[in-house]
């Protein structure tokens, strides 16, 4: 867990643009006295003014989303270092317009900090996030899934927002 927390601290300081939370980490507390098999209770904590506080019920929706994304990245780097793919399913659900922009900019900074060592797959209906990531990250292609008038799914490859090419 020590290595996960080191990576998590590096990611947080690189990506988070607020000044209220200095760092986040995963805290593990041993449970029971069994010598055969150790058990732990895990929690996510934040460092505020040098003090460790439980993150649950104390941070914004945007901070929670960012923390969950960064925790997944840190865990992947430690346990699956040879697979630098991050998949996000609806990362902006229930976020307001400002928070969506914030998440988009944070993801952009994360991608920039990782260079060619990360591949991002985002499943979203949020056109604002797609546009922001497309403009800032300049991917070779963006794929969209839609249905035609007969209800048949079509995969479309976009080289630029608005330009499409059907892919079957």
Explain what you see.
With 168 residues, this protein is α+β, with helices and mostly antiparallel strands. It folds into 2 domains: 2-137, 3-Layer(aba) Sandwich (Rossmann fold); 141-168, no CATH class. Helices cover 37% and strands 29% of the residues. The protein has helices at 2-15, 61-79, 97-114, 127-137; strands at residues 23-31, 39-48, 51-54, 85-89, 119-123, 142-147, 153-158, 165-167. The strands form 3 sheets. It has a 3-stranded antiparallel β-sheet. It has a 3-stranded antiparallel β-sheet with strand order 6-7-8, with no helix packed on it. A hairpin with a 2-residue loop joins strand 2 (39-48) and strand 3. Helix 1 crosses helix 2 and helix 3 packs parallel to helix 4. The longest helix is centred in the middle third of the chain and has 19 residues, at 61-79. It is globular, with a radius of gyration of 19 Å. The relative contact order is 0.11. The model has no long low-confidence stretch (mean pLDDT 85).
Number of domains: 2
CATH topology of the largest domain: Rossmann fold
Unreliable stretches covering 5 or more consecutive residues:
none
SS-based class = alpha+beta
In CATH terms, the superfamily of the largest domain is P-loop containing nucleotide triphosphate hydrolases
Distance between the termini: 43 Å
Q: What is the annotated CATH architecture of the largest domain?
A: 3-Layer(aba) Sandwich
How would a crystallographer describe the biggest sheet?
3 strands, antiparallel
Q: Kindly provide the name of the CATH class of the largest domain.
A: Alpha Beta
What percent of residues adopt helix (DSSP H or I)?
25-40%
- What characteristic shape results from the CA principal axes? globular
Total strand segments: 8
Q: Order the strands across the largest sheet as they lie in space.
A: 1-2-3
């Amino acid at each position: 867990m020590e290595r996960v927390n080191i990576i998590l601290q590096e990611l947080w300081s690189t990506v988070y643009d607020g000044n209220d939370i200095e760092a986040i980490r995963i805290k593990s507390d041993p449970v029971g006295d069994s010598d055969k098999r150790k058990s732990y209770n895990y929690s996510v904590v934040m460092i505020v003014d040098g003090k460790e506080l439980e993150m649950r019920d104390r941070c914004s929706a945007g901070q929670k989303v960012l923390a969950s994304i960064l925790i997944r990245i840190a865990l992947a780097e430690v346990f699956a270092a040879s697979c630098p793919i991050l998949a996000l399913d609806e990362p902006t659900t229930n976020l307001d317009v400002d928070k969506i922009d914030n998440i988009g900019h944070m993801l952009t900074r994360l991608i920039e900090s990782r260079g060619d060592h990360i591949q991002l797959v985002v499943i979203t209906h949020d056109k604002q996030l797609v546009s922001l990531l497309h403009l800032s990250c300049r991917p070779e292609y963006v794929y969209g899934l839609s249905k035609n008038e007969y209800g048949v799914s079509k995969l479309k490859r976009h080289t630029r927002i608005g330009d499409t090419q059907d892919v079957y």
